[in-house]
Write a structure and sequence with these properties.
The complex is a heterodimer.
Chain A lengths: L13 H31 L8 E4 L4 E3 L1 E7 L10 E6 L3 H4 L3 E5 L3 E5 L5 E5 L5 E9 L5 E3 L5 H47 L2 H32 L3 E5 L5 E5 L3 E5 L6 H17 L2 E2 L4 E2 L2 H32 L4 H13 L4 H24 L1 H6 L11 H26 L2 H9 L4 H29 L3 H6 L26 H11 L3 H36 L6
Antiparallel strand pairs in A: 1-2, 1-6, 3-4, 4-5, 7-8, 7-12, 8-9, 8-10, 10-11, 13-14
Chain B lengths: L27 E10 L2 E11 L4 E5 L6 H8 L9 E9 L2 E2 L7 H7 E4 L10 H5 L1 H5 L5 H14 L3 H4 L12 H13 L5 E5 L7 H14 L4 E5 L3 H7 L2 E6 L2 E7 H6 L4 H7 L5
Parallel strand pairs in B: 3-8, 3-9, 6-7, 7-8
Antiparallel strand pairs in B: 1-2, 1-4, 4-5, 9-10
Helix pairs in contact in B: 5-7, 7-8
The chains are: A alpha+beta, B alpha/beta.
């Protein structure tokens, strides 16, 4: 027998290929699993399945959308018993929108075509059997009438237009009057304090005028509201009790057992659209996330705008100008360690330094009157968009510095020398040659910073993110961009919905949907930055260094 | 051209006779020059004069200090940490280490072409006029004229005149090196330093660059470092041979290649070492 010589044996590196490949597979599997879970749970929120009428063996009847099916706690492993969770809606009558039922107790399920699902402005959804519709002109249409569905949808659309109009009056126009009133009141208090008789008069007249406008708007709103009070839907709920829903309360109505796939898809699209483009309702568990999407986007963009110049300038100094030595090494180590500091620490720092010290000083300097005559209400001395952006910019600074330093170091020595040899100064060389050539690398750093910043929540809770912001940071009133305002953020929204919501059953699907949205937003931001980077790279393509 | 006699070392090499042109004989004057990288002495007691509007070649084996000397003529070695020098270099009578002379203005007068062509990732036009841009020339007509003049001098104009706005990185290796020459002469320096300008090029591109050197020496004083003895013989008027940081011999090219006075020089050019 011949002993195998070393060159005929299997290549020694082979197991390591498998081992490293395994690592990749595990990593990829976890990421894809996470994305799949979020995608599945996030999107099914908007899908409208058929709604059963379930007969229980104790005579109860349930009308509701199946939400979950799970093994009952304590049931034997070999004969698991399941329980079902139905979303029955009508929170004001049932006390709870969701109901757990032992699967064994369900005698039968039917899917009658006349079940109507309602999304309501208050008290969540409802699943009912319609009886009749009173239109806005007073005419009553019974549910059996073939024109019932068309009439119902027309009334829903009319009610939506009405709500829109009412919203315009109460939120925007009355809001505007309120803001002006506030300014005028502060001015009046200041005038009274300084005993400026003319000004006091003028301000009082102004306030009287505003009060008149306020009253007029209120009256207009009442009138509009009254116009919609006629139309209502009469229906019966599962137990046979009568429910009367004013149409102004109905956001959306659908017949879940009549819809074909196309109808369901349209409903899906409409709900998804509402989710992305509308404002939240019902303690954020319903409606859309427009303010949170907008807040996240604006905050991330500002953070990038602040961190990029700051980080690049720092890196240029460190790499090009500073004397390389022990001090610089310590600085570098510190910068790198900054990247490992827990984000909440940055939040505390942001609150202590940016909000109280910087914001407080700004208020003292520029808004002294505002503080004095408006019950010490701070302007910049409280959390806001500006401080959130700055805090996250500080947090992501090391990423940009390190990336820029690497990018500068990677610029071929020849290019640097060529520039200096033509008589360019060091700064000209940096500005004209080094920075353009290292732009793709710098952008890689910015992408990483954005990805980290957009998903950060903990520090933001301290420096300006709120559960519900009445106004967007960007609006039509000067100076249009309000860096002092508090804003909503998707990451905080996930936390708030999932762990602070009074109705956790209703919030659960929204947590997934919001998570999905946050991921999509971060991916979009990154794709945008990557697109810019690739365009820059294309300019340097074929570089023969 | 004189017929070649012994030694055999030069029998393969054609030597251009030194052309006598007027100009300062000691236009660049290097006196007792020594140079250190940290503790390592790279140059020792170099003393030579470079006449105006002539081509001087520095030859010698790798590590002999010829590139170091070249890079000191426009103080490019200032970029390296921990260097020091002794002695002095003067250009047209003025020391390049004169505290009143800014390095930037020195480098504007002393252009440089590197071993590896190093065009900027910009358009051909922007590459050529870069030196003018850095001194603040904004007038488009001036820039365009300078661009055309330089490219013509660099014998590149006809090849690129239709694509001045294309990226310089799309040019061939020889074109890139000529572009770098055009860039180096765009702001009309007095001296052109060339650090092995043809070492990465094929023979045809090399030929073009050598022709160019002949054209350019009417206007510039050229110092070229080369590893190719043939090239030194073809293009230069005077040649300096360095070995281990010391200047072994400096004389007319004709003399160096046909009748060197030092045995080491003869050994090197005949290929016996180095």
């Amino acid at each position: 027998m011949v002993a195998p010589s070393s060159d005929s044996s299997t290549p020694r590196g082979e197991p390591w290929v498998w081992f490293t490949g395994l690592g990749l597979i595990v990593g990829l599997g976890m990421v894809l699993g996470l994305l799949g879970l979020v995608l599945l749970n996030g999107l099914t929120v908007f899908w409208a399945p058929p709604v059963p009428v379930a007969q229980l063996d104790d005579g109860h009847v349930i009308i509701g959308q199946l939400a979950q099916r799970r093994i009952r706690a304590g049931s034997p492993a070999d004969h698991p018993r399941y329980e079902l969770q139905y979303q029955v809606g009508l929170k004001e009558m049932n006390g709870n929108s969701y109901l757990w039922v032992d699967e064994a107790k369900v005698k039968g399920e039917t899917f009658p075509a006349d079940i109507l699902g309602l999304e309501r402005a208050e008290n969540g959804p409802a699943f009912v059997r319609p009886r009749s519709l009173r239109k806005s002109d007073g005419q009553v249409v019974p549910a059996a009438d073939p024109g019932f569905e068309a009439a119902f949808q027309a009334e829903v659309a009319a009610a939506a237009a009405l709500r829109e109009k009412l919203n315009e009056i109460t939120r925007h126009r009355i809001g505007e009057v309120n803001r002006e009133m506030e300014v005028a009141r502060v001015a009046l208090r200041r005038a009274e304090d300084l005993k400026l008789a003319d000004e006091i008069d003028a301000r009082r007249r102004e306030i009287a005028g505003l009060e008149k406008r306020y009253a007029a708007l209120q009256a207009e709103a009442k009138q509009v509201e009254a116009g919609g009070a006629v139309a209502s839907l009469t229906a019966t709920e599962a137990a046979g009790r009568e429910v009367v829903v004013p149409l102004t309360q109905i956001i959306r109505g659908w017949f879940p057992n009549r819809l074909d796939t196309w109808g369901r898809a349209k409903l899906f699209g409409s709900r998804l659209g509402e989710f992305v483009f509308d404002e939240p309702r019902e303690a954020n568990t319903e409606g859309g996330l427009m303010p949170a999407i907008f807040g996240t986007l604006v905050m991330t963009v500002f953070m990038s705008l602040m961190v990029t110049p700051f980080g690049v300038i720092t890196a240029i100094y460190l790499r090009e100008y500073a004397q390389q030595g022990a001090v610089l090494r310590i600085v570098r180590i510190s910068v790198n360690n900054l990247a490992g500091v827990p984000s909440i620490v940055f939040g505390v720092f942001g609150l202590g330094f940016f909000v109280y010290v910087l914001g407080g000083s700004l208020d003292q300097l520029f808004f002294a009157d505002q503080l004095k005559y408006n019950n010490n209400t701070p302007v910049f001395g409280t959390g806001g968009l500006l401080w959130c952006s700055l805090t996250l910019a500080l947090m992501t600074l090391p990423v940009v510095i390190v990336a820029t330093e690497e990018a500068l170091a990677a610029v071929p020595r020849g290019m640097r020398e060529a520039s200096l040899a033509t008589g360019a100064s060091k700064w000209q060389t940096i500005r004209d040659i080094l920075l353009p050539a290292s732009a793709p690398g710098i952008l890689t750093g910015v992408i990483l910073a954005m990805a980290r910043g957009a998903g950060e929540v903990a520090p933001l809770m301290l420096v300006g993110v709120v559960k519900l912001a009445p106004t967007l940071p960007l609006d039509g009133s000067a100076p249009f961009l309000h860096m002092d305002r508090k804003f909503m953020h998707l990451g905080f929204h996930v936390y708030d919905l999932g762990f602070q919501s009074p109705d956790s059953d209703a919030a659960r699907p929204m947590v997934f949907a919001t998570t999905l949205l946050l991921i999509v937003l971060v991916v979009c931001l990154n794709l945008g930055a990557i697109w810019i980077r690739n365009r820059l790279r294309a300019r340097f393509k074929g570089a023969a260094f | 051209m004189s017929q070649l006699m012994n030694p055999p070392a030069s029998s393969r090499i054609k030597v251009r006779p030194a052309t006598e042109r007027e100009g300062r004989k000691d236009y660049i004057s290097i006196r007792d020059y020594g140079f250190w990288y940290g503790q390592k002495k790279a140059l020792d007691a170099i003393s030579l004069d470079i006449p105006e509007r002539q081509v001087v070649a520095f030859i010698g084996p790798s590590g002999c200090g010829k590139s170091t000397l070249l890079r000191n003529l426009n103080r490019m070695n200032d970029l390296v940490d921990n260097v020091r020098h002794e002695g002095d270099i003067t250009i047209n009578g003025r020391s390049i280490y004169d505290p009143g002379l800014e390095v930037i203005s020195l480098r504007r007068r002393v252009g440089m072409v590197f071993q590896k062509s190093n065009p900027f990732p910009k358009s051909i036009f922007e590459n050529v006029v870069y030196a003018l841009r850095v001194v603040g020339v904004k007038d488009r007509a001036v820039l365009e004229e300078a661009c055309e003049t330089s490219l013509r001098k660099a014998a590149l104009w006809d090849e690129v005149k239709d694509r001045l706005n294309d990226s310089a990185l799309g040019l061939s290796g020889g074109q890139m090196q000529r572009l770098c020459i055009a860039r180096a002469i765009a702001n009309r320096p007095e001296i052109l330093l060339m650090d092995e300008p043809c070492s990465a090029l094929d023979p045809i591109a090399t030929g073009k660059i050598e022709e160019l050197i002949h054209e350019l020496k009417d206007q510039f004083t050229i110092v070229i470092v080369t590893h190719s003895m043939q090239q030194a013989a073809r293009v230069s008027d005077r040649t300096a041979f360095f070995y281990l940081g010391k200047q072994i011999e400096y004389d007319t090219t004709e003399k160096i290649f046909m009748n060197p006075s030092q045995a080491q020089t003869e050994a090197y050019i005949s290929g016996r070492f180095g």
